[in-house]
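Summary for the steering committee. One of the milestones for this cycle was to obtain a three-dimensional model of the protein with pyridoxine-5'-phosphate bound, which we needed before selecting residues for the alanine scan. The sequence and ligand used are listed below.
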Amino acid sequence: MIKLGVNIDHVATVRQARRTVEPDPVAAAVLCELAGAHGITAHLREDRRHMQDRDLEILRRTVRTRLNLEMAVADEIVSFAERIRPDSVCLVPEKREEITTEGGLNVVGGEKAIRKCVERLRRAGIVVSIFVDPVEEQIRASGQCGADFIELHTGRYADAKSARERLSEMEKLASMGEFAHGMGLRVNAGHGLTYGNVRPVLRIPHLEELNIGHSIISRAILVGMERAVRDMLELLRLGPEDL
Ligand code: PXP
């Protein structure tokens, strides 16, 4: 079965709306794990708009599955990762004005800094993934930077306005899954996935794990975290569905 990593950033977003102590993403992570999630993902942004250092420090000690830290290629955050040692990191682009991560990391052209960052993280025993658009050059460059995984950006598939566009985005994801595997890279995917659009994505060849945040946390607000996670796991268990 394809694994589910739950991105719990939005729990911290609600807390930061009042700069208070609730809801606590650490409690959310426990509930996700009790419901069967295979991993917990959190993005420590340079602007600390949702997750705080304290959250990652406690999650590192409490997460019993796997802790995946999303982060920018930024010296301060690399040092933080070296200190707390998440099981894995996913390198993402970060812009102050964005609402969420808007696309894959531009690895082509940034190889020197990215390779240095990957080396530091791998030396600390951390598995490294790079969030990329389903584009051959970006995947090739990710491999050349020494990444273990790529995480295919599914945002354009999720945002497709027509059945034809959706199919074309799905085909790109599938062929880039194959291409990455051929380069010796392991394959994850995520962004914009929902209960309604997740099953076709399960067809991506060599896919190991999906990272899903917004849709699960949105449902959790209404029906509770455990039920929201179990509902998503059930879809993954059902397997691929045709578009
Ligand atoms: N993967 C990456 C690299 C992300 O940056 C995000 C959003 O933080 C996700 C997956 C999850 O996206 P969503 O919240 O749309 O499910």
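Key point for the committee: The pocket of pyridoxine-5'-phosphate is lined by residues 7, 9, 43, 70, 90, 92, 100-101, 131, 151, 190-193, 211-215 (CB under 6 Å).
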